[in-house]
Amino acid sequence: MKTVALIVAAGTGERMGGSLPKQYALLAGRPMLAWSHAALSADPAIDEVFVVIGEGHQALLDSALPGARFTIGGATRRQSVALGIRAIGAADRILIHDAARPFVSEQVVDHLLSALETADGAVPVLPVADTLVAADGTNVPRAGLSRVQTPQAFRDEILRRAHADWSGDEPTDDAQMVRALGGSVALVQGDPMLEKVTWAGDIAAAEARVGWETR
Ligand code: CTP
Ligand code: MG
């Protein structure tokens, strides 16, 4: 059974700002992308790790991760995933991961791959802690709602079909696309370490999570 991890890293990190796209910014002494790449490469359940990078980012990749296997992504996350899937050869299971979530554990990968024994896809989720309110002031009950993280794991065939057929609005994750085809997506226990780095202050928060002292 062949399992491939695809890390999408073709964004520009607009909300983060700064001189480099955030996935190449130093996080606890190492480019952010290198953290998840190292963890997924070391995971015994994963056979290959592939990166989708932005156009013109090859020199950045070369210095962050010399020798990494990569392809060039597109203008949206969905397009980057689609181009990545096209670039990797046949597999049985594909994990899609955001470079913006640096700290991936083997435990989360294990939960996801176990869930694929009975489901078409699996995503890690955490409960919603805050009270939710709509723009019109209506309270939104949070019971039954979850925050979705990556990596997300899928059976190869349904993920390829979901990306080949997509004609809806821009989705924010791949699970949504697989569900649109009628695929089953299991929810597994997420991990606070997988929190996404989006805004400038998130770098220091991520460093604190690994006990790195920000200077
Ligand atoms: N991504 C990608 N291709 C794109 C857009 C995003 O591969 N065209 C990737 C990002 O590199 C990131 C992940 O998708 O690892 C999640 O996206 P996000 O956190 O939104 O990153 P950016 O799009 O880079 O940030 P921003 O939206 O602030 O510009
Ligand atoms: Mg984005």
Automatic annotation (TrEMBL):
Molecular-function annotations in GO: 2-C-methyl-D-erythritol 2,4-cyclodiphosphate synthase activity; 2-C-methyl-D-erythritol 4-phosphate cytidylyltransferase activity; metal ion binding
E.C. numbers: 2.7.7.60, 4.6.1.12
UniProtKB keywords: Isoprene biosynthesis, Lyase, Metal-binding, Multifunctional enzyme, Nucleotidyltransferase, Transferase
Residues annotated as site: Positions MEP for the nucleophilic attack: R142, K196
Cofactor requirement: a divalent metal cation
Pathway as given in its UniProt record: Isoprenoid biosynthesis; isopentenyl diphosphate biosynthesis via DXP pathway; isopentenyl diphosphate from 1-deoxy-D-xylulose 5-phosphate: step 4/6; Isoprenoid biosynthesis; isopentenyl diphosphate biosynthesis via DXP pathway; isopentenyl diphosphate from 1-deoxy-D-xylulose 5-phosphate: step 2/6
Catalytic activity, as annotated: 4-CDP-2-C-methyl-D-erythritol 2-phosphate = 2-C-methyl-D-erythritol 2,4-cyclic diphosphate + CMP; 2-C-methyl-D-erythritol 4-phosphate + CTP + H(+) = 4-CDP-2-C-methyl-D-erythritol + diphosphate
Annotated region described as 2-C-methyl-D-erythritol 4-phosphate cytidylyltransferase, given as residue ranges: 1-215
Family under the similarity heading: In the C-terminal section; belongs to the IspF family.
Function: Bifunctional enzyme that catalyzes the formation of 4-diphosphocytidyl-2-C-methyl-D-erythritol from CTP and 2-C-methyl-D-erythritol 4-phosphate (MEP) (IspD), and catalyzes the conversion of 4-diphosphocytidyl-2-C-methyl-D-erythritol 2-phosphate (CDP-ME2P) to 2-C-methyl-D-erythritol 2,4-cyclodiphosphate (ME-CPP) with a corresponding release of cytidine 5-monophosphate (CMP) (IspF).
Protein name: Bifunctional enzyme IspD/IspF
UniProt organism field: Sphingomonas dokdonensis
Residues of the full protein shown: 1 to 215 of 374
